Amino acid sequence: MEVSTTLWVLTVVGLAALIGIDFLFGRKPQEVSIREAGVWTVVWIVLAGLFGLGLLALGGGQPAGEFFAGYITEKSLSVDNLFVFVLIMAKFAVPALYQRRVLLVGVLIALVLRAVFIAAGTAIVTSFSWVFYLFGVFLIWTAWKLVQEARGDDRGEEEFEESRLLKAVERRFGVADRYHGTKLWIRQNGKRIMTPMLVVMLAIGTTDILFALDSIPAIFGLTQDPYIVFTANAFALMGLRQLYFLLGGLLEKLVHLSYGLSVILGFIGVKLVLHALHESGVPAPEISIPVSLGVICAVLAVTTVTSLVASRKQAVRAEVDAEGAEKDPVDA
């Protein structure tokens, strides 16, 4: 799909306007209700849907299909970010009143960093076709790693560890011992130091780099159009903040999410390898976008249903065990 400079500028300006509106609604520190989070989640999904329909009208079914496949993939992969966001919020003891602001700025930082990744990825893919082999193998390896981590079942025991870069920044500028509203910098003993608010924003924004390492190659496995790659990532990330408040405790019930994501990443990895073989002149079959979109949606649907069923069974067993313990108390 040929994208003019004018369309790029209009898209970036439009996204910036949406972010500005979102910021205005969330400028006052307050807890986010489930209803508000639900409304905004629907708004961002509808906006993504309208954007996809716009691509359908302008460029036809191919770019629209690539956008929806990329958006759904990035959205599903970004849900895994929420587990880390929960750990970060707990690590820095972020008050509920400030979590909205923290996530908005943190996600904005993540979006800027992903734009850099996408630009670099586009340059590499354009110059070196063999990189598809590398991306494909990496995604398959990541899929296997996700399965291994899921089998370990230690997500609930994890703690967020600050990166060396973030620790270095804290040592360089110093960090206040408490929150000062939404202020990012304060003066203490004549020295300008960071507040925990700024530190947690940087933590969320820079931690997303780790997720971009697999999500960016994954979407390049669905489309090599930088415009679609960027917009799919933008819409997926910008609705992430509301999804954080909407899902809440439901995250713990998505017990099979890692398995579903591993299947999706493995599938896209195989698709990339087949594409690389095809580009090298090997008569390998290529997986079409409609097939990719169908597989991704089917895997997510099955994963969600099986996760909720498994969580329900676990809750029932826990209730039975609790009732049994009350009936047969053990003397100390």
Write the layout of secondary structure elements.
Elements: H1 5-25, H2 34-59, H3 61-91, H4 99-127, H5 131-152, H6 164-173, E1 185-188, E2 191-194, H7 196-220, H8 226-238, H9 240-247, H10 257-279, H11 289-327
Antiparallel strand pairs: 1-2
Helix pairs in contact: 1-8, 2-3, 2-8, 2-9, 3-7, 3-8, 3-10, 3-11, 4-7, 4-8, 5-10, 7-10, 10-11
What is the first-to-last residue Cα distance?
72 Å
The shape, in one word, is: globular
- Summed up, the helix count is 11
Strand order of the largest sheet: 1-2
What's the helical proportion of residues? over 70%
* Total beta strands: 2
Radius of gyration: 22 Å
Return the structural class.
mainly alpha
Percent of sequence in beta strands: under 5%
Q: What oligomeric state do the depicted chains represent?
A: single chain
User: Helix and strand succession?
Assistant: HHHHHHEEHHHHH
**Mean pLDDT across all residues, rounded?**
82
Low-confidence stretches: none
Largest sheet: 2 strands, antiparallel
